[in-house]
Structures are given as structure tokens and as C-alpha cells.
Amino acid sequence: MNRQTMLLKPLHDERARQEHSAAVRKFVNGAVMEGNREIYRRVLKPRFTVKNGRAPDRHELWDMFKGGSSYQWSSALRRLQQEGMWDSVADIVDRQGPELAALARHEATKNRQKGSLRLDSRIQAPRYLTAVDIHCMPGNYHTQSSGEDVFAGALYDRAITTHGYKGANCDEVGLALSAFVKRNFPTLEVRRLLDMGCTVGHSTLGYAKAFPDAEVHAIDVAAPCLRYAHARSEMAGIAAHYSQQNAERTDFDDESFDLVVSTIVLHETSAKAIRNIFRECKRLLRPGGVMAHCESRQYFAKEPFDAQWHAWGAHYNAEPYMQLMHETEMQALAVECGFHKEKSFPQMPMLGTLDRRLQLVDPGPKPKTYAEILYVNGAVK
């Protein structure tokens, strides 16, 4: 076990399984996706255009694609890879679970903590999070077997480290969103920051690095993830205050934050919840404070093929609200929730990040990392 980050160390065979799963994921999102794109470009789009005098939208493309053997085969492979990702890391978490729980307990009870952990057993995960195992993750993010359980957090951390985020602590998205804020709001003084839906604190650590003078708070409804997140932060020597709260309504004071952020969270919530979250952001922000939520690009701004390839997750990856969120005009939603139109911004690309010295990097014309392909929705109070 890496005693600086809580990250588990796999045995030889465990690592081989994880590397195989990651390779299959790369193949699916590379060659398999591009093969389907060629079918769309060479066959489906021309056929539809001849018949209808226009190109298909993503819904019409879905109707054409889902009956084809290539897309069916691709979908089956994507689903098997997603399930295999969790299978490839579950054994190592089971094997080292007791040690992880003991480390988390130690970090939560030691005398000199850099941050803090505040759990509330009255907080229940909302129905839109508990109805399915989101991302096909076994047991979802909130399930726990005891008051010291960290299994969900450890499972997610290992899977994302192997298959997803990059950076010293998987903090690339937090650093990139911080760079976005610094570049677009250079006069904003961030003294207090809130990360909504933090899971295990990957992005939280990025925000803490980028704004070293800020008091950083992070919330989630999942107690196992928060226990893991807190221990992970403490062992990395980074101060962050974690509390078990629903982002729709927190217990923080009015106008108590300068920056409220989230990382790829909104699409897992319902239409009602997103509105509640935006209203809560407005309540929490001080005048001049910034709300910034990063997500994938909205579907109406994507090519039909790219939009439908992404929307696959709503059908087969247990992300039922994905399409709803990505078809919502977020600037108009911010206005609906009380932000002024002239202070709400349309979805903007997150191009650019911070280097190791935490200096802004020239974004360039194209994204260079996973984080830089994301987009930001938000407003200034």
C-alpha cells in the first residue's frame, strides 16, 4: 500500500488484470468508436440524407444504430469492459480492506489533523443516486457494511487511477478547473472554496493545491467515500474539510464561499436536483463569487455521432440522467435559478491547466489531457 496516498498496490496477477481492462477500454474508445464513426459517415448518414434531404440528429441516429450488428457488438464490449473494470480491482480492495479501514480510522482520530471529517448518519443518499448502481459500480458509492467501511472509496480510487484521471493524486480535473477560474476570473480572491460531490477527493486535492491560501471544503452523501477521501488527504499532507451533506441543501451559512465547484457530478442528478443545486450555489456564494461545474460538452454543440456515442451511458452504463443534463441549456438554467443573465456564462471549454509549479499553462488550440476536453457551466453572483 502506498502510505502517502492510500492507493492500494496490486499483486502481479491483479496488475495484469487491471492493465488488460485498461487496454480494452482504450481499444473501445479508440478503434471501436472510430469504426462505428465510419459506418455513420459512409453508410448511415448518406442513406438518411438521400431519403430525408438532411443529416440525422442524434435521436434518429440512435434508431438507425441500435439495430445494427456492429453497434450491438460494440455496446456489448463496452458494457463488458465497464463491468470488468470493477472486477479487476475488487479483489485487491477485498484483500486489503481491513488495513485500509484501520488507516482511515487512524487519520480520523489522530490529534493533529490538517483537515477534518464530519459524518451525519441522518443523511440519506437521494433516490436518483440509489435507484441504480451508477457506472455499474457494485454497491454504488454510498453502500457500507459498517461504521468504518471504506470499500466504495477504495474501489473507485483504484479503478479511476488505472482507467481514468491522471496527475499526482488523480487531481488533473481539479487543476484544470482551477486554471479555468484563474484565467477567466483573475481578480477573484478565493478564501473559501466548496467542492460539491467530491467522492474520494481527487479534484479536491487539485483545488487545494491551486488555491493554497483557501479554506477548502468538500461534500458528498457517501460516507465510505468521505472516510477514504479524508484519510487520503491527510496522508498526502493536504488540508481539506470533508462533510457528509447533500449538495441540494447544505448546512453552511449564506454567502460563505468565494468559489463553488463540482467535477462531472451534475449529470448523475435529476432535473429537480440540478435546480436545487444551482439555487444552493447562489445562496452560498458571496457577492462576486463564482459557480463553476465541469461536465462533458452539451449534446446540441456536438456532432450527432459524438453525442450519441456519449449518450450510450444513459442506456447501458446506469447513468439515467445523463441525456437530460446534456440536453439542458445550462446558462438559461442558471438564470432560472436566480443568477443574472449577464453574469451567467454559456458552456465554455476548460482548455489549459496548471503546471507542477501551479502556473497557468498556455491552453493551445486543442485539448492535451482528459481534463481539457471538459466544459464549464456557471455564473458569477
TL;DR of this structure?
By secondary structure, this protein is of the alpha/beta class. The protein has helices spanning 12-52, 58-65, 69-109, 127-130, 151-163, 172-184, 202-210, 223-235, 271-284, 304-316, 322-326, 330-336; strands at residues 116-118, 192-196, 215-220, 241-244, 257-263, 285-295, 344-349, 375-380.
Sheet bearing the most strands, described?
8 strands, mixed
Number of helices: 12
Q: Which structural class matches the secondary elements?
A: alpha/beta
Bulk shape = globular
Strand content: 5-15%
The helical percent reads: 40-55%
Q: Unreliable stretches, pLDDT < 50, 5 or more residues?
A: none
How many strands appear in the DSSP assignment?
Answer: 8
- Mean model confidence by pLDDT: 92
Work out the radius of gyration: 21 Å
List the secondary-structure elements in sequence, H or E.
Answer: HHHEHHHEHEHEEHEHHHEE
Termini Cα gap: 44 Å
Q: Strands of the largest sheet, in order across it?
A: 1-4-3-2-5-6-8-7
